[in-house]
Every structure is written in structure tokens, then in C-alpha cells.
Amino acid sequence: MDLQFTQEEQAFRAEVLQFLRDKLPEHLSRKVKGGLRLTREDMQQWHAILNERGWLANHWPRQHGGPGWGAAQKFIFENECALAGAPRIVPFGVNMLGPVLIKYGSEAQKNYWLPRILNGDDWWCQGYSEPGSGSDLASVKTTAVLDGDHYVVNGQKTWTTLGQHANMIFCLVRTNRDAKAQSGISFLLVDMNAPGVEVRPIITLDGEHEVNEVFFTDVRVPVQNLVGEQDKGWTYAKFLLTYERTNIAGVGFSVAALEKLKRIARKVQRNGRPLAEDPMFATRLAKVEIDLENMKTTNLRVIAAVAGGGVPGAESSMLKIRGTEIRQEISSLARRAMGPYAQPFIEEALHESFNDEAVGPEEAAPLASQYFNNRKLSIFGGSNEIQKNIISKMILGL
Amino acid sequence: MNFEHTEDRRMLADSLDRFIAEQYTFDERDRIARTREGYSRTHWSQLAEIGALGALFPEEVGGFGGAGFDVAVVFESLGKGLVVEPFLGALLVGRAIAHAGSDAQKARIAGLVDGSTLAALAHEEPGSHYEPTLVRTRAERTGDGWLLQGAKAVVQQGEQAGLLLVSARTSGADGDAQGVSLFLVPGDAVGVAWRGYPKIDGGRAAELRLEGVRVDASALLGTQGEGAAVLEHATGWGLLALAAESLGAMEVTKRETLEYLRTRRQFGVPIGSFQALQHRMADLLLEVEQARSAVINAAAAVDADDRMVREKALSAAKYSVGRIGTRVAEEAIQLHGGIGMTWELPLSHYAKRLVMIDHQLGDEDHHLARYVALSQEATA
Q1: Fold of B7-113
Q2: What is the pTM assigned to this prediction?
Q3: Closest to B128 measured CA to CA, from B369, B378, B321, B362
């Protein structure tokens, strides 16, 4: 038993830290740390910086432009990026579609799409969820009917994250109505600029436009945009969902958020002393810190188990559940720490251009809206209830 | 033992509920909550006509109710409708005046009852973090009047208020109960500076700066230096009101979530058929009923002469709805899934209000600590 990273891993960590010091633009880390909203250009800028270094597609094998890292290196990289306040990598092209194409795509598809993902030529979004199928992903109703050398797509996708920026969407579509739910699904790459595609914003409870509805009306998609075999898309879909989950616990995000929370708690006064010394708040803080320390090790245990290759299976459900609960608790405490100043919601203050005086503590502006926004963590990516079903079935054998 | 409301209160609740269902629909509420004013003058006067404001005050000051259960009934209805109108300010300021005011000051309650005067309590300050005696705003004698200097935090509907109740220190140190005095200040007095903003749960509040505001001697409410007790009295009514409002919002949230469990189908069946979700819903029901009892306890105790009995019940209620309201909000969003995250669904706004009630007049930690302190004081 040795909880320390190896010398090699420590050297790698130093390399990552040096890179972040040299290359992470200050205006990006300031926005991420301050909870400000990122623009499309911000996300693209970081994408390009990582690509230049060859660290963007860190889940891809070397031959396709990946760095060839193991699980521990990916974990170190993702953690240090989160701690440094780097924008998260928009995952849809790099982390989701990329691995699917590498495993199941044709040579032509790999040669065409993979470099475009790396270069940022395409912004991908994910067409999985539909209004009637949230947790029950296999109940896809969007149809694709073969017509000559095209599929004709009709239906609706929802919760399409950052779809407003995307020019491409990978979709689960039903190509065979007679087959039972999980067969008869195909995996299709659709041009968002094609006639018949319409994107409508969904505004979330915090007033943010992050997710969208995407409507398809007689959209013609060339057959060469089918990934793998027709009707076999469920296999690819599942592969995508379970593929890369070293970061599902979001430990780096939690550590960064906890550091910020502690800073706030030392500054905000309650009853003539810092909130951090208030017995009730200190207890809440200690509880979540202990949970997080435990989670760090749980996460590393899972990573160590798959270090020889392969991907975590049902264990990643544990990481997802506890990891998101910890992130939610930290943002709940940050909201609580603001006292009455959790109430003001000055949307302009979430943008870089805001230069008015802060209302209340200087950190206050985004905290309550982040708390509400973070309710999504236990819903998306397979709700925590679904994760518990997976644990019950796959680990407990119930 | 009788847990039925009186005929009068039932009628008041019915007419309020009807008005809200017909005139204060969710779409209308969403519109009002985002306006520059943060409330609706039209709806406000109509609510006054129904008697929703008069019910908050006893007959001797021009109201026609004023008991704990009157206040609870009104605010429970307001909570069900997610009403953003400035009821809380009217209650806090009106009850303070009714408790400590001169006859001339009490005459101003008529304007609160008929809705013509909007009132706001300007008490909390930047950095006071719910501590009621941490008053740094100063009031100094000048001639036969007072000069007010300081800052007040998150004043609910402050910009719109014509009548402000301002706490200021006339003697003693920060945190002393002694030496806090109360002043009735016109909202448009010279030296009153606002910075208004929307609230995350709808409606508006504002930061207030008092930059050498002059008021005459008649502005002092109650005895100089003895304002803390008056504030405790008024805040007590506010705690009851917020607890009842929270209960109303919880009821709707629970009802909507239950309906969703019955109708939302996944894997070919309503999700309410899953035992894991049934138990969570059962827990919510249990919690909401506990919150209802806390509100009943507070409504029964708010008029009690025994300070310990009264204040413990009020802190217990606010602690309960703070903890339970947040839980109900979080669970309701989770049980709805993605749709629970959307602005379009009224439920998400109930959730925001439930959580934000915990940020008004002291959160669950504050009131739990206060309950402990009161208990220790009683046994000392």
C-alpha cells in the first residue's frame, strides 16, 4: 500500500504545473475561479492551447494524436487543470465522439473527423436525450429512414449542452421500429446547418442558456455519416457512456471549490468572528472536507484498478454519486456563507465586462446561481438514481 | 383541541387563493417578478381590497385580525402563489409601530392596511450576517432631531418603499443590544441612496446608504436605545410569516412532484411505481407535515407573554422550514430530473423561493444556535 504517486508520476505533475503556469491565460483562469460565464471564444482558446501541446485528446491513442497517457496521468492532468482554474474541455467531440470513431468508425471517418475535432474545425454536441427519454435512453423516438444514399431524420433531442455553438451533432436515431428497444438504434452524425435542423434555447432556473432543444424535420443525412453498422448504435452509445470516467467524480473541481469556500469562510464574519470558526459552519465544512478526502482515495483506488488498461465499470457509478453529492454540498455551503447576500442576482456581474462595485462580499455574485445550476450534477450523465440501479445490479447482483 | 381555522380565516384564505389562482397566475408572477419595480401596483391594491393586509393587524390599529393564525393563513396563501408583493415589509414595519409607536405613528398603519404606503425594514447591514444587534449605522442628535449615517443590506423592496424603519446605534458598542434605536424615515428623504437589484428568487431588494439623513424628533420609534426589543417583536412576526410562506410553497412543490411521479413514464411505467422514489416522496410528506406543525406552534406562540416560549417556538419554526424547505426544493428538482432545472417550469421557481427563505431573517444554523442559546438562558 502506497498512497504516493510514483516518481514518474510526480515528474509528470510538475510538467503539467509548468505548462499551466506558462500557457493558461490569466483572463481565463480568472473567469473560471470567479465563476464568470465563459464565451465560445474562451473555450476555443483553451482547446487550441491544449491541442498545440498535444494534450487535448488525452483519451486517444498515440496514433490518432493522443499523448498515450495512463489512467493516473489523466487523473493528475484533470486535477491540476481544475485546481489552476482552466476551463473544462468541451467533451462532446474530444472525449465522447472521438473514442467512438476510433473504435467503431470507418477509416474514412477517422481520417476526416478526428483531425477536425483536434483542430477545432467542428464543434460537436450530443443528441442522446429526448423529451420522453431521460433515464430511459433506449426509448429513442427520433427516426432515420433510408432514402437512396441519405437517411431522412425526424424527431427531437433535448438537454443539448452548448448546442447553440455547435455545427455538428452525433445522434441516436431509430432505424428499425420493429426491433425491441435497444436494437434498431443507429449512431448518426448530423450537420446542424442542414435544412430542417432547428435549435431552440432552454433557459435554466438560474437564467442561463446552456442547454437546448434540437428539432429535426426531414433532415437529409448522407449514409457515409452512419457510424458502424445500422441498428447497432446502442453498442456504440453505451461504449461512449462508459468509456472515459476517470474524471467523473470531479475531485479536482471539488478541491478547487473547497479551497475557495474556505477562503470565503475565513473572510465572512458571523457573530464577531470568521464563519470558519463558527461551530455550526465549521462542522459542515469539516464534514464535506472529510467526504472529499475519502473520495480522493476512492477515486484513486478505482484508477489503480484500471491502470493496467481498460475502463472502470460499475465502480464509476460510485464515483459519480458521491462525487456529485460532494460538489453540490460545497456549492450549498458557499451559498450559505453569503448569508443575506445570497439573494441578489446581478446577471451582468457574471460577465467579464462588469466593472461596477460588487454587492456584498466580492465573491458573492455567482454563488447562489451556481448552487442552483449544480443541481444538474445529480441529474445528468445518468441520474444518481440510475447509478444506484447500476450498483445494485452490477456490483451487488440484486 | 381544535386544528380547524375559524370561519373568517377560511373565507380569507379562500378569497386569497382564488384571487391568486385567477389574477396572479404563474405567467403573471414571472412577469411581475422581473419588472423594474419588482411588484405590481395593480395587484397590490387588489390584494389590499381583499383584506390580505388588514388581516395582518389587530383592530386597535385599524386592522381586522392580527393574531398569529391570521398572519399564518395569509402568508401560506402567498407562498402557494409565489407572490412577490411587499407583504413582509408591511408586516415588519406595521407590527413594530403597533408595538412601540406613539398615537401619531400608529395612525400611519392605516396606509399600510389600505396598501397606499409601501414599507421596508432597513435593519441588516453589510457584515451583520443575521446578527440582530450588530448595528453600526449611527444616529446622532442634531438640534431637536437626528442625523443618520450608515449602510443597510438587502432591504426588501427598498427602492419602492415610502416608509422605512431604520435601526441605528445611539449608544453602546457594535453588538450591544442596548443603544439600538429605531427611526421612521421617509423613503425619499434627502441623503437616502439606493442601489437596487433583482433577487434570484424574483422581486427586488436594494442596498441602502444613509448619507447624513436628517429626521426630526418625532421619527424616533419607541424609547431611545431600547429598539432591540421592538425589533425582536417585529422580527418574530416576520419569522412566522416566512415560515408560513415556506409551508405554502412546500405544499405546492410536493403536490406538483407527486403529480409528476404519477404521470412521468420511463421504462414503460410511471416513475412513481419505483419503490426507491415512493420512499423519498413519503419522506417529503413527513417533512412537510412536520413543517406544518412547526408553523402551527409558532402561530400559537407568537403572542405569548413568556419570551422563552415565544422566541423558542419562532426560532424552531424558522429552523424547521429552513432545513425542510431546502430539502423539499432539492428533492423536487431531482425527482423531476432535467425538466426541474428549467425556468419554464413553475416548480423551479418554488424551489428557488424555498431555498432563499432560508436567507431571510436568519438561516437554519442561526436559528438552531439561537434556540440552543435561549434554552441555556432558560436553565441558567
Answers
A1: Butyryl-Coa Dehydrogenase, subunit A; domain 1 (1.10.540)
A2: 0.95
A3: B362
